[in-house]
Please model this.
Amino acid sequence: MSILPEKLEQALSLAVATLAVGVMPAPMERDEDRDAALRKLAAVAGERGWSMETLKSVAGPDADLLFPSGVVEMVEAWSDLCDRTMIEAMLDTDEPRLSQRVRQAILLRLPPDEKRRSAAVRGMAVFLSIKGQKAFRRAWLRTVNAIWQAAQDDATGLTYVSKRLTLGSLYASVFLYWLARGSDVAGFEAFVDRRLADVLRIGRIKARFGTGIFTPAASAAAR
Model:
């Protein structure tokens, strides 16, 4: 990975902390032209990077007009597109267990696709720039929320917030693993399973003593 691990971990920690507010950012602008351009760019972004020049070369000379705020908006919109693709893929799931639906959503959001992973690495370089950090936190909030949406969870109130805090921490570690070693499909899935098992185990221990912010999330995930 070309990204400094310490800088990425700091950004992820801050993004997870913002989940405590429990307020999701507004949806991004969405339309078919933007989505089509993003798909074309993402296919080559791992090799050529996220730039207006690359966008215009693959999506047409006027494609830059689709993203008036520049490259940061482009990467944020791609993250949003990936979230929506995950949610759509989960619509027909018949898995009865919430914890397994969360697992399915995570694996769909972080697929064993080398081009996708390379594009994400290059995208994180944009997000970690001074201009990209707020956009990264917005994108992170949307993704964590989208995973719960894809898992068809309907929590409200304090449980809504605690579930997102719990998943935010889990997804941060999973995302780091995927960026570094996501090409090892079996290893990645095993890592996701261990992290989910850890959350469930901690939740059961906390529930036994009647304390802990992880209790609502883990107890619900066990259903």
User: Anything to note?
Assistant: Confidence is low (pLDDT under 50) at residues 211-223. The CA atoms of residues 81 and 109 lie 10 Å apart.
